[in-house]
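To assess whether ligand presence alters the predicted conformation, the chain was also submitted together with flavin-adenine dinucleotide. Input:
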Amino acid sequence: MTQTAVDNPSPPFAPAEAKVAAAAKVCFQRNADSVASHRCKVAEHRWVNDRYKYLKLTANADLAGTTKPGQFYQLKCPGTNDLSPFLLRPMSVYGVGPEAGTIEFLYNVTGVGTHALSHLEVGGHMDIVGPLGNTFVLEPGFQRILVVARGVGLATMAPLLQHAAKAGIKITAIMSARAPKDLMRDEFLRGADQQVQADVHCVYDSDGSSSVEAMELLVRRLLDAEHHDVAYTCGSHRVLMLLQRMLKDYPRTRGEVAMEQRMACGMGVCLSCVRLFDKDGDKQFLRVCREGPVFPISDVVGEVEFG
Ligand SMILES: Cc1cc2nc3c(=O)[nH]c(=O)nc-3n(C[C@H](O)[C@H](O)[C@H](O)COP(=O)(O)OP(=O)(O)OC[C@H]3O[C@@H](n4cnc5c(N)ncnc54)[C@H](O)[C@@H]3O)c2cc1C
Ligand code: FES
């Protein structure tokens, strides 16, 4: 079952309705009606390591009720004396609640926008637009899921772990990082591991355990040992391609990926985030911001050759 743009068949990029599988009962649905611009107050803003910052905002709106795992917001990063970010920046929702108006982000300080954002002080204000995009599919009947996260994928997938743990779904998690100091294990798990006694595996570039070969052995061992209903991933193209290849050997395990793609409008208008997908031989150009960012792993086309 795919959770495609069931409420948003906007040609020519949305798949024909006939191709949209009848929606089975899912926990999450697209909620385009909830998209709005929110003026937010900064409640907390701090470094979690030398590259990532945690940002907690509050708004006078039910963000917790309308925002689902896998969705993202467009952040209007406030300018500074030196930095004037033009476009809004897409950021996955890292957490919501417990108050209705509270939303959290975890972001890598990399370029103009995120550097400008990093200067925002507690008590200051900023605008965000969302929630945008579709969500991961998490069905109530799931017994165990596999989550493979790296880099910003960690922020995107953290809410999925929270929902799975609350639903009593068992979790196998693989966290990948350059080195142990970059891992952000607590930020990713946020107590979900204790709630359902998650099986957590950490792999690193520094000792070679995150190599494709080592990951393949690990993932095969985990999938052979126990059935997993879905394998979710975000944050690494290498891992995505590995899972796409491997999941062909585990047809009962579905795969979903949250794609990270350069975006401008984030709302399906400018077409800057279009990517090629292949649905059972049917090639389609889809907007990552609108038909995604979550796609079946099997649909992703890794290398595109034009001409
Ligand atoms: C759906 C989605 C969710 C994301 N969630 C997170 C998250 O939770 N945490 C996090 O740290 N990062 C996340 N990213 C990546 C984040 O959007 C970029 O790191 C950020 O836009 C970089 O902005 P910048 O101005 O600092 O960098 P610059 O390089 O100065 O940006 C220049 C332009 O390119 C765009 N851009 C640059 N890198 C990316 C990128 N990787 N993805 C999309 N647009 C990019 C910027 O938005 C901007 O318009 C996400 C991206 C997408 C598409
Ligand atoms: S970013 Fe404009 S259509 Fe996706």
